Inverse folding.
């Protein structure tokens, strides 16, 4: 367990900022008690400083987790949010998407949010920004990145993608219900492949949009 380096901190904050914006300061400047970010076995934890200090008495190889696992560093050094960050994102999210009851399970199996399954979306949501996905009972199901802005969604084809899937609570079961810590900090191979496909599709749309603007 160790503090994040400057570059790691930058990556974590940039990713969180995409979802919660300036509310990121609420994670650091808390009125109740101080919290911090720590790295342990390539996983990034958000933890109370009091717990962190106690954890220093535990041998590294015996320490499994501490605080909330919000993401991990890949083998290439890139930071990726995992489903353990959902509570933090939902608490401070700037933009939200609600799915219809008939589309909940589709999202929970790792699929994108389609126009046909969209119930509501926060007004003035821009394209390619982080969103938290909810069901109609305001229960957070996961998070992703918008493919279209709010005004563009109104004229979309029913099969069009509204938001690219990045994480959902179904991962706890798909990743192994007995070890929720591991499920929260890693995606299954199927999820990894789907996320890569989503990212490639997202990048292609961004490139196409830039070419049209030129």
């Amino acid at each position: 367990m160790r503090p994040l380096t400057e570059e790691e901190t930058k990556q974590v904050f940039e990713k969180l900022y995409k979802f919660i914006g300036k509310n990121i300061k609420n994670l650091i400047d808390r009125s109740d008690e101080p919290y911090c970010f720590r790295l342990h076995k390539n996983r990034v934890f958000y933890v109370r400083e009091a717990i962190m200090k106690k954890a220093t008495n535990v041998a590294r190889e015996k320490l499994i987790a501490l605080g909330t696992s919000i993401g991990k560093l890949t083998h290439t050094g890139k930071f990726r949010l995992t489903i353990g960050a959902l509570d933090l994102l939902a608490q401070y999210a700037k933009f939200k998407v609600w799915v219809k009851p008939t589309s909940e399970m589709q999202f929970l199996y790792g699929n994108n949010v389609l126009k046909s399954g969209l119930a509501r979306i926060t007004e003035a949501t821009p394209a390619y920004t982080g969103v938290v996905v909810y069901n109609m009972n305001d229960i957070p199901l996961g998070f992703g990145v918008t493919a279209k802005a709010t005004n563009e969604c109104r004229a979309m084809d029913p099969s069009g993608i509204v938001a690219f899937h990045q994480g959902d609570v179904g991962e706890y079961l798909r990743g192994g219900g007995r070890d929720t810590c591991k499920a929260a900090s890693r995606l299954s191979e199927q999820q990894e492949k789907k996320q890569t496909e989503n990212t490639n599709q997202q990048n292609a749309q961004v490139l196409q949009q830039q070419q049209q603007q030129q």
In short: The chain has nine helices and eleven strands. The first strand starts at residue 2 and ends at 3. The chain has a mean pLDDT of 85. The CA atoms of residues 1 and 40 lie 4 Å apart.
